[in-house]
Amino acid sequence: MELLRIENIEKYYGSKSSLTKAIDGISLTVQEGEFVAIMGASGSGKTTLLNCISTIDRVTSGHIYLEGSDITELKGKALNRFRREKLGFIFQDFNLLDTMTAYENIALALSIQKAPASSIDSAVKTVARQLDIEDILKKYPYQMSGGQKQRVASARAIITNPRLVLADEPTGALDSKSSKMLLERFNYLNKDLKATIMMVTHDSFTASYASRILFIKDGKLFHEISRGEATRKQFFDKIIDVVTMLGGDVSDAL
Amino acid sequence: MLFKLSLSNLRKSLKDYAIYFFTLIIGVSVFYVFNSVGAQATFMAVLSSQADIIVLLDELIAGLSIFVAGVLGLLIAYASRFLMKRRNKEFALYMLLGMSKGKISFILLMETLMIGAGSLVCGLLIGIGLSQFMSALVASLFEADMSALHFMVSGKSIAKTILYFSVMYLVVMAFNTLNINKLKLIDLIQSGHRSEKLRMKNPWVCSIIFIVSAAALAVCYHKVAFDSTFFTGGAGVIESRFLLVVATGCVATFLIFLSVSGLLLRVAMSIKSRYFRSLNSFTFRQLSSKVTTMVFSMTVICLMLFVTISALAASFSLRSSMNANIVELCPADVEICYNLRKGDEPMKSDLIEDMKKYGLNITENFSDYASLHYYIDDALTMRSTMGEFEEELSQQFRFLMWDSREPIVTLSDYNRLMDLYGRKHLEMNDDEYIMLCNFSNMKGVRDFALKQGVNITVFGKTTLKPKYDECQDGFIELSSQPLNSGIIVIPDNAADPDRMERNFVIGKYKAVTRDGKHETDAKVKEQFDLFTKFQNESMNPAIERLYSYNTKTDIADSTVGLTAIITFLGLYIGMVFLISCGAILALKELSDSTDSIPRYEILRKIGAEEKDISRSLFAQTGIFFLLPLILGAIHSVFGLKFAMNVFEVLGMDKLAGPITATAIIIVLVYGGYFLITYFSDRAIIRGQR
Question: What pTM did the predictor assign?
């Protein structure tokens, strides 16, 4: 079933005299239960694309449909509600509140939605078990490692059962071991909990965990590959081929 | 080049500087107003011929202005530290580019100079305007003549303000330079993302500290407000006892805030259904981190608010009771007292008749007057009116003048005076006496004896029993305060004409206007001067017919002279403290909000409603402002009770008005600060900078 449909969106920055086309006519669809990665060099427009989907930024033209409704038309309160109820965010720099414990950070996503306090506790415990962070719930962000922080952020993103989880360079600030652990959790969320994940990355290794990869160059869709029945290693080699074709300077991971 | 850089820095960070600048302007104008109105108040006291207190006053104002300067200096230091923290990134950039610390100091120096000069000029202009307003306010507070208090620009005060603030700015500059020299580049660069380490305090320890300090406060409250033995013992003992209570109170206040900072979150968290609703968990976390880092400042603010509330309420109360007292306790215009004895020798005579002998007709000035006599019985001392309880009471109240002889008046004399005063007559049988007293400390002692029905013997022949079992409210001499410590009224036939001690003539002028009364004052004075002169010439100079002479005008003016200044100082200190408290809290709030911008960004990213964010901010700011105010208000309830115990003039029943006035001022100033802080905070976190 189709969850997200993007129709020919464009995003321009700057004035008429010096126009930058961050996104230049991109169209794509994402099926429910997919794990999509978006790859591209710095400045290719991948983060802008994610920001437009997450309604943090507005498109210059074109439409974005989530479950059939056009989110580029949303304004003010409706926009906030959409963001709160339909989307889950994972950021490169975690964006955890440093004054609150992991538990409180995760619970905040629910309490912002005005969920009854009685249901919060069990929900937090469940999601903590899924992400293997039960024993750090009482810790503050400064007491955690980067990988733990990102798993807490992931827990906060999925506790509201969002239709779509958006991840912006989730492994960008993690060491390789933590990255691997996080991505395996992502796989678990995707396969076992049927979460739809859309992830922006410039790292081939990270991207190799996805089921489909979209390559973006200079604001345009450049290429698209699917993993299919291939192993992760085979998929990774395929990605490296495309990256080399893209210009080579995207990443030299592994 | 560097000068240009500092100028453009100022322009760029105008918003940050605005708070600093605002604080400075307030400081300068408040300081100027204090000195100039203080000088005028001294001037006023000169007019009301109170030369002896002027020296004292000058010292008082000089001392207080140093104190005020100290408070303002701390405020400026605080504000400047806040500003420095804001700009760590900027300094880091300069240092990365290879600028020497000396040059950075120089940039800061230029900035401080410009800010300082600007704020001095603005502050002085505002201060000059404000002092006019304050003068009018002070004048309207008192019923007496305040026409001497008029608009003037005090050059001396301006010079003093400039001097004091220059010194303060220099100190701030020195501090900034020191700070810059201590800075390390790595700290500057990382200052943005050094996460705060929060430690939860042990709730049990906090609870115990809370209970102990609350109990200590309760004991202090009880001691100052309700414990009558607090004032027993010598002056030194009372003083050290008082200091002990104050010190305990300060420490307990600090500990209360310390424990509250640990408990606040615990209590909030224990109510799960509330804690995890909307942004409450975030709100309390923010608040708790704020309070934890501010325990000491909160204590200072709380104590300052306590002083503010007490000073304001006491000042207003003093002022209203003083005005009321003049109306009640000065029901006539002039009172003249004439001595009738020289040693043991009676010199029966009458003031009015004696004056007539020299062709001076004093009564022509009066629309109505009364002449009465004080009798003295050498055997009738205060000790003797206590009967058998004398020993017990004199042990308990050692400071009273037990061997002073009691003034006695006859019933008919007294009732005649009451006709003049427009007060109630007294009635009694021939074997009774009545005790008049309106000085409440003495009343307590005398009532004790009257309750036991102690009989007295007057002039060695008549024994009288008390008609009432308590003192009756009344007085004879004009005064500004209820300080009649005791007069005995006896039946006419019990009096011994040979024992007349003094002759009082109390009159009301014919003139009714203020100017007319002043003229009559002058005329009566002239007649007396003549009378004194004639008497000294004609009579044996060895016999002194000492008389005292008191007018309502003098009483009112002298009371105003002193009380007005005390009141003014009280109001003033209150205002300075209030403004400082508001400024410190506002600065802390604003700097916290700036630090918290990323947190609010996160909230927005995960979809929190702007409305909920605003509400959370409102709650944070509100509770932050309320915490010290609540404890300060509780302190001042007992502080005022204490003030009433010490100063007789502050009546409990008269306190409703002053407290309302105080509350209005607090709500206006403190509430104003709160609202300004909240709205600027909201602008900061919404990024409208």
Answer: 0.73
